[in-house]
Amino acid sequence: MQTWNGQATGEIAILIDGTTATANQISLPSPGIILQLIVFGLLLGAIYGLVALGLTMIFGVMDVINFAHGAFMVVAMYVVWALSSATGLSPFLFIPLAVVVLFGLGVAVHLITIKPIMEAPQENQLIVTFGVLLILVSSIELYFSPDPQNYDIDLGSIAVGGAFIPEGQLIAMIIAVVAVVGTWLFLKKTMLGRAIRGTADNRDGAQYVGINIQRIDYLTFGIGAALAGLAGAAIPLFQTFDPFIGDAWLINAFVVVVLGGLGSFPGALLGGMVIGFVEVFGRFFLPGSFYQVVIFGIFILVLLILPQGLLGGGPSE
Amino acid sequence: MGDSPDTPIRRRSFIKYGGAASVVALAGCSAETDDDNGEDETVVIGSAHPLSGDFADTGTRMNNAINLAAMRKNDDGGIESLDGAEVEVIDEDTEGEQELGSEAANNLIDDGAHVLTGCFNSPVTNAAATAAEGSGVPFVISVAVDDAILGDSPRDYVYRPQPNATQMARDHVDTMPQVVRDLGEDVETAGLFYIDDDFGQSVSGALEDFLPDEGIEVVASEPIDFGGTADTQVTTFRDNDPDIVISTTYNASTQELISAMDNQDYRPPLLGGVANEAYNDASTLEAMGDTAEGTFMTNFALNPVDERADEIRNAFEDEFDQSFDANVAMSYVAAEVIIEAVEEAGSTDHEEINNTLSEITVEEHISAMPEITFDETGENENALGPLFQVQDLQDVVVFPEEFAASEPRL
Predict the structure, then answer these.
(1) Which residue of A31, A53, B331, B346 lies most exposed, with the fewest beta carbons within 10 A?
(2) Residue A55 domain-assigned?
(3) Closest-CA residue to B278 (of B171, B158, B193)
(4) Domain extent at residue A104
(5) Is the domain of B311 the same as that of B290?
(6) Residue of A38, A143, A284, A285 to mutate, testing the B interface (most B Cβ within 10 Å of its Cβ)
(7) What is the CATH number of the domain that holds B42?
(8) Which residue in chain A has the smallest CA separation from B217?
(9) Which of A141, A237, A242, A280 to mutate to test the interface with B (most CBs of B within 10 A)?
(10) Contact yes or no for A240 and B223 at CB 8 A
(11) Strands B189-195 and B139-141
């Protein structure tokens, strides 16, 4: 019997247009393994959604593609880790602090680097945010060293019906859901949230009705950075990290944002789920890194067929 | 009728030609180059390693190992055949980036390096070796495993003391199953876990070719990306239930593998590794904990039964307050080979050093392998990756017996 990626195969006959052909049939793994894959798909999808939230917020309101998003995540990782290591206290205590720090960092970055070039061509903004990325990552590397690090925390996993749910990823998923709901409520129910939505819908119109666009911009960038910080602070709950890990998450975050719809929070979560499931099941059933072909194939397909994304619109969605 | 010495024309000509002659004479005096007589007062080793970026921890220690070799030679009186010429190390940061490999090599050559060494990352080493080859400067690889560096196109100036990917895989397949079977267990199936780059692909590809020779079927082959987790890969291993999971990854990815195994309460009967630095790093072994205990790993190694090797390890740790692992040991060995070649050549001329390297036999070195001598492709004819085992969370050579510091156990 042949094997492909360890799966037992057998030949079956297929009738195609009167011609008999043979094909290899891949047998399904056990239900326990399928359940495990579903669990990982959900967990990974939620984390991708969390990572994409801040990115979609900034782009939805300001039309700025923030290449420094991954670097913001890394700053949060090191804030939590450094404070937790220095004090001996649980890293959970410092996650909210990291969010606040990143809000401040986001506001500062916007005022110093983005605001002066808001009217400039978009490629200028890309280059500037890329520069911010390089500065932040290099600074972290110099100060903390490039060695991989971990939170000093002992999280296990929960066994459910033959599948295992790593506690770190479960907590990150809960954080993602809370972040999406919280951000949606903020945008729907608060004056500032409505102002942000209005600015995203019609920037000029918002200005005419008295909304302070510049204030909205820096607050939005700060909130986007804070959301990046929340994602960054959550990731080390289940993974080692180093100054360069932001890039790996950023690439898929861009795909999630486009897939879900630029500026859509539920879209970010939905897009994250799609990519998460494709990655998990693709890794399991497809050889090597072929799953990446599928992910970027979906990306291109969405751009062609549904350019506004699955739930595209603005932060009002 | 003729020009008198005092005529302007003759004076101008005299000044012109006399000045030109002076310049030529001065140039000849000040520009003492390798190609002139090969007798510099300083022997310059150019070291190209990742001093920043993902691999900076390992790269910095490797660079320090080369510096240590130079320091010890200088303390010993320098290069005797060059009247005590001192060994100097100049370095370039490759950042672990392939596009910087040739730039680093060229910068070192421009700065006067007589021999180059580097670079840890296989793609970077390939690029640097190409630059060295093009310039006719000898290059002794410190650490880089990919066969392609010396296999894809003939190189006359590049040498590799360590075993390459094929050799490492071959050594692992030749030794690990036999050791396990001698202990009363068997290995019939294997899962491969590898970093998805040249390094990981070359070693895992070689393992896939050789394992069936020992009656071992590869039932799963799972790559991991930089910065990725290993959850799905471990689920695949759970589904395929191999007797051994062999990993060829860097530090962080190996930790991800162990962490994912712990989360899924899964551990195969055996763990293996080929060229996996994580299993040679004390702090990483401690972080991985009991799950890593008993792992059988093939890598180049410091000779654990050689007193001089132990002395050098202690000297390194005292000097730099850094850990001395297999990569560091191999870098020191590369420097030993270079210094020996210059000593034998009695010259800093590139061609003379290169000719010496092509014929050299280095018997006194600190790695766990026989004497180092290079074949026509530049590979070490006697390259060997001994078999380690993680025992009490320490990496211990268990095979072959001449280099073993402990017995293997299950």
Answers:
(1) A31
(2) yes
(3) B193
(4) 3-305
(5) no
(6) A284
(7) 3.40.50.2300
(8) A6
(9) A242
(10) no
(11) unpaired
